[in-house]
Design a protein that fits this description.
Number of strands: 2
Number of helices: 23
Distance between the termini: 9 Å
Order of helices and strands: HHHHHHHHHHHHHHHHHHEEHHHHH
Length: 484
């Protein structure tokens, strides 16, 4: 293990992350909200800490190995999760405990969107901006950003890409060099963010809200600058339509966006099997949700039923977590249906969470293959994606991931029930954290501030393991990983 090289990188990462305190300082200066010192002190603390970690090992320039990549990825999220909590913890306007500050920070960076803060409409603009910025930084994955700048640090990035990129197929690159891959994804992400902000602004949001919500929309994070979330803009249907469009795009594989941009052809979307499954799921669930809302007279106007049903389906289905109305109070089976949709989640290579549409599709295909094998035991039946057969190793990996997911889900849910949460609250909190969704049901429908300290730390772990897609974190707990 190259521990000195890992320490050097973590120090550099902290020093770079300290720069994230400068935009909120500017916001505080513009709005004169009284929290300028909070971000100045946070900047100094994080910068000095980073220098202190980096300085003793500044000459440890060694090539990372795959195992080092796993350690750095996990350390990356843990260290930045704690560092990101600094402004929340020291701000006199919030008066948050260390646990709450870390919970809010990790929720932001993992784009979960669960919050322990109420009264957002009364908070300083700099704090509100900072929460949105955290999600934006975590959206595509800070790992990709690190990959893009690795050559400047003297460290290769392929190990980080394999260890930190979500999805069952991690070795496909958009460009011959991994650095160019990171840059390509970053430019697409930035372009979507700018386009989303301009669209929100044109639809009627203030410039401050438009920028903030574009951060959490493209990152499918779900943080808002208002307690009512997107419900604050219920009298502006165009804002919901803009949100639907950009949440849908952000839930797609960014590799597809790149291929379409490079070839100037949308045929890459139409040929992709995961994209077609993604669209089919969202269309079916949106139709059921909108139809049931109208059938039960929840919305007398059909247009409102359709917009609300489609918005909430795409928001939950892509694990964005925005809300317009209190969907958890919607009639019948709808709240549970929407939560189940978040299990499927967005596409591989997107900013979303969940199992991912590709894995869900492969699980269904494997199930169908076993049924056919029951009828024809001697038949050789392959599972194909895009017309090409997949090796059994990929299918086994998907089943292994699913088994680990279910086991961890059940364990976390039981621990939450031990802390005093009822079954539905514990189930929805586990769902919302592992799928990086945010809002749950019952006790965790609006905020998580009422749950115990132990439950908050358990959910922090749940958010991290969901963002890191289980194995990246679990591999560190295996004896084989630490053997030479």
């Amino acid at each position: 293990m190259q521990f000195s090289a890992i320490q050097r990188l973590l120090g550099i990462i902290l020093m770079v992350f300290s720069v994230a305190m400068l935009p909120p300082m500017l916001v505080s200066f513009i709005y004169l909200d009284g929290d300028f010192n909070t971000f100045f002190y946070a900047f100094a603390i994080i910068l000095i800490t980073g220098i202190s970690i980096w300085l003793p090992v500044k000459n440890a320039k060694r090539e990372l190995r795959l195992r080092d990549g796993f350690i750095l990825v996990v350390s990356f999220w843990l260290v930045l999760g704690i560092a990101g909590a600094t402004p929340f913890f020291i701000s006199p306007k919030l008066d948050m405990s260390f646990t709450d500050a870390v919970f809010e920070s990790i929720s932001g960076l993992t784009t979960t969107g669960a919050t322990v803060i109420s009264g957002l409409d009364q908070l300083p603009q700099s704090i509100l901006y900072y929460r949105q910025q955290l999600q934006w930084l975590g959206g595509l994955g800070i790992i990709i950003i690190a990959v893009a700048i690795m050559p400047m640090l003297g460290i290769g990035g392929m190990q980080l890409y394999r260890a930190g990129t979500p999805g069952p197929m991690k070795d496909s690159k958009l460009t011959p060099r991994i650095t160019e891959t990171g840059k390509a994804l970053w430019y697409i992400y930035l372009t979507l963010t700018i386009g989303c902000a301009l669209a929100y602004w044109a639809a009627g949001m203030s410039l401050f809200d438009a920028i903030g919500h574009s951060f959490s929309t493209v990152s499918v994070g779900g943080f808002s600058t208002h307690d009512a979330s997107m419900g604050y803009f219920n009298n502006m249907p165009m804002i919901q339509i803009v949100a639907i469009f950009f949440m849908f795009l952000s839930g797609m594989n960014f590799s597809l966006h790149f291929l379409v941009w490079r070839s100037r052809s949308i045929l890459h979307y139409l040929r992709d099997s995961e994209f077609k499954t993604y669209v089919l799921i969202l269309v079916v669930v949106s139709t059921i949700t909108s139809g049931y809302l109208y059938y039960t007279d929840r919305f007398i106007n059909l247009d409102n039923a359709i917009i609300s049903g489609v918005f909430q389906t795409i928001s939950i289905g892509t694990t964005s977590g925005f809300t317009t109305y209190e969907y958890y109070n919607w009639p019948g089976f709808l709240p549970v249906l929407l939560l189940f949709t978040s299990f499927i989640g967005a596409c591989v290579g997107s900013t979303g969470g969940g199992l991912k549409t590709m894995r869900f599709s492969l699980l269904l295909k494997q199930g169908m293959r076993e049924i056919r094998r029951s009828i024809h035991p001697n038949a050789i039946i392959s599972i194909k994606v895009g017309g090409k057969p997949l090796p059994d190793r990929v299918i086994n990996a998907v089943w292994g991931f699913f088994a680990a997911y279910i086991a961890i889900f059940a364990t976390i849910m039981l621990i939450l029930m031990m802390t005093g949460l009822d079954q539905i609250s514990a189930f929805s909190a586990t769902t919302a954290s592992m799928n990086n969704l945010g809002p749950g049901l019952y006790a965790v429908a609006n905020t998580y501030e009422g749950i115990t300290t132990v439950a908050k730390w358990v959910l922090c772990f749940s958010m991290l393991i969901g963002r890191l897609e289980i194995f990246t974190l679990l591999v560190l707990f295996t004896p084989n990983f630490w053997r030479r």
